[in-house]
Amino acid sequence: MRQHTHRRCYHHIEVRPQTIGRVLGIGLRVAGRVAGQHISGSTQSPAATAVDAPVSGEAGDARARARVAGRSAARVPGSLARGVGGFLRPFGRVGGILWLEVMGVFFLLPLLVFGPTLWRIRASWAHGPDHTKFLVTAGVMVVFIYLSVSSFWRARKKSAAGS
Fold first, then answer.
1. CA pseudo-torsion sign 88, 90, 94, 99
2. Please, which pLDDT band fits residue 91 given cuts at 50, 70 and 90?
3. Could you count the other beta carbons within 10 Å of the beta carbon of residue 90?
4. Alpha helical stretches, state H, 6-130
5. Within 13 Å, how many C-alpha atoms sit on residue 51's CB side?
6. Is 2 domain-assigned?
7. Can you tell me the distance from the alpha carbon of 125 to that of 53, in angstroms, rounded to the nearest whole number?
8. What is the mean pLDDT of residues 136-147?
9. Number of structural domains in the chain
10. Which of 56, 71, 91, 127 is a plausible cystine mate for 60, CB 3.0–4.6 Å?
11. What's the distance, Cα to Cα, between the start and end of the chain in Å?
């Protein structure tokens, strides 16, 4: 008896809730909804406020419209910040993991500088003329190895926690 495996198209693949695509889609929908509510709210506000405001000719009408426009303009930065924040939130986690990995690589770079020196003076490790230089170089290398490995370790833990 032969089992058939179904191949799925790229758009039929099941999306887990933790994937970046789903999070971005949700963020875009929320940002679109907030922007839509703000736009619809600012188009309805002038009419509603203009009716309630006492009208004394064109000057009173213009003042009421200016007041409503000022209030709606004051709400734009907060709404925009919430929308952008919702959109960028998934990138914060990925950016943090990437930052840790880049720092791990940068902590490995001094090993390329101190490694040849340590190799050159390795014969002086116990009592030679460069004994102090050997110990300092070895200590610096141990610190940078620790920083590099711990940075990669933290990036691995952070990526495992998100999936």
1. positive
2. confident
3. 19
4. 20-52, 57-120
5. 4
6. no
7. 88
8. 94
9. 1
10. 56
11. 36
Instruction: Give the pLDDT confidence score for residue 53 in this predicted structure.
Output: 46
The pLDDT, as a whole number, for residue 142 is 95
Q: How far apart are CA 25 and CA 134, in angstroms?
A: 55
Residue 3 maps to a domain: no
User: Which residues constitute the domain of residue 49?
Assistant: 10-162
DSSP category for residue 17 = T
**82 domain residue, yes or no:** yes
Length of the chain: 163
DSSP class of 18 = T
Express each pLDDT in 39-67 by its tens digit: 777 544 444 444 444 545 565 666 666 66
Does the pLDDT value for residue 90 go beyond 80?
no
Is residue 49 included in any domain, yes or no? yes
- Closest to 151 in 3D by CA, of 104, 92, 107: 104
3-state secondary structure of 8: coil
Better pLDDT: 6 or 123: 123
CA distances from 114 to 126, 128, 144 (A): 18, 18, 10
Q: Could you give the percent of the chain with pLDDT greater than 70?
A: 61
